[in-house]
Amino acid sequence: MTVAILGAGVMGEALLSGLVHAGRRVSELLVTDRRPERAAELTERYGVEVVDNPAAVKRADTVLVVVKPQDMGALLDEISDSARPGQLVVSLAAGITTTFIESRLPSGVAVVRVMPNTPALVDEGMSAISAGSHCDEAHLSEAEGLLRSTGKVARVPEKQLDAVTAISGSGPAYVFYVVEAMIEAGVHMGLPRATATEFVVQTLVGSAKLLSDTGEHPTVLRERVTSPGGTTAAALRLLEDGKVRADFLAAMEAARDRSRSLSSGEPV
Ligand SMILES: NC(=O)C1=CN([C@@H]2O[C@H](COP(=O)(O)OP(=O)(O)OC[C@H]3O[C@@H](n4cnc5c(N)ncnc54)[C@H](OP(=O)(O)O)[C@@H]3O)[C@@H](O)[C@H]2O)C=CC1
Ligand SMILES: O=C(O)[C@@H]1CCC=N1
């Protein structure tokens, strides 16, 4: 079974590396990229064959499309003549609907839409997948199996994908933003940058493990840290006064709205 990855950027490489680590034979993988030097880099790193987009689609059973949303229209036009009914096309592009993709490919091509995230690079990704209109269970299971090599996978109705994009697709960026802010705070208070970084990163890793291993609600875990009249309560009061929680809600609504607008080709 041959799998082609069209677009070998951040997410394309995460998929490639996940598939290779999961034991998929390199001889059954193909990659494409707009910049030949990037494709050559991946050949050197993974031993994978680089071809052009139409050739990749002709040779592959399953095609993973991992270009930016703004590049999807042109790419689909380029591969349309090479795609065939029954073939599976899996799109990872934010905001691009299965209807948009299906309308640009021959009828009968099965389309699955995925929203992954960058922890896929370390096999700790969270991917949501949704079926297009010509998909059967075998297509969905196939897509699920491919994504599982980069972390967890869950099926969601496509109408939830814009919210998922806002929460888990963009989510790592919010976490890194908070980490940056905490490190800067440590530096402001006189800690060496390396010390602040080590303490913040391990606090993040430990807290994530606590959430995931115990399954406890974050409110319970937060309350356990917050001693009456103590240091945490003093910090949290400031965050509440600053409406940080409300800002998070508004920020993620902005991400969801941007995801919704991408299919219509709204300019950057
Ligand atoms: N990064 C993330 O956290 C996430 C990204 N996604 C989605 O994944 C997709 C890819 O994102 P990301 O990997 O970050 O983006 P990148 O820009 O890193 O990767 C896209 C790659 O596709 C190449 N490309 C563009 N057009 C073509 C084409 N016609 N044929 C072959 N290759 C092409 C680009 O080349 P060039 O460099 O020349 O532009 C680039 O190397 C996006 O649609 C994004 O919405 C989804 C969830 C999370
Ligand atoms: O910022 C973006 O548009 C992409 C989709 C989700 C994460 N990165």
TrEMBL record:
One of its GO terms (molecular function) is pyrroline-5-carboxylate reductase activity. It catalyses: L-proline + NADP(+) = (S)-1-pyrroline-5-carboxylate + NADPH + 2 H(+); L-proline + NAD(+) = (S)-1-pyrroline-5-carboxylate + NADH + 2 H(+). NADPH binds at residue 53. Pathway: Amino-acid biosynthesis; L-proline biosynthesis; L-proline from L-glutamate 5-semialdehyde: step 1/1. Residues 158-262 form the Pyrroline-5-carboxylate reductase dimerisation domain. Its main location: cytoplasm. PANTHER family: PYRROLINE-5-CARBOXYLATE REDUCTASE (PTHR11645), PYRROLINE-5-CARBOXYLATE REDUCTASE 3 (PTHR11645:SF0). This is Pyrroline-5-carboxylate reductase. It comes from Haloactinopolyspora alba.
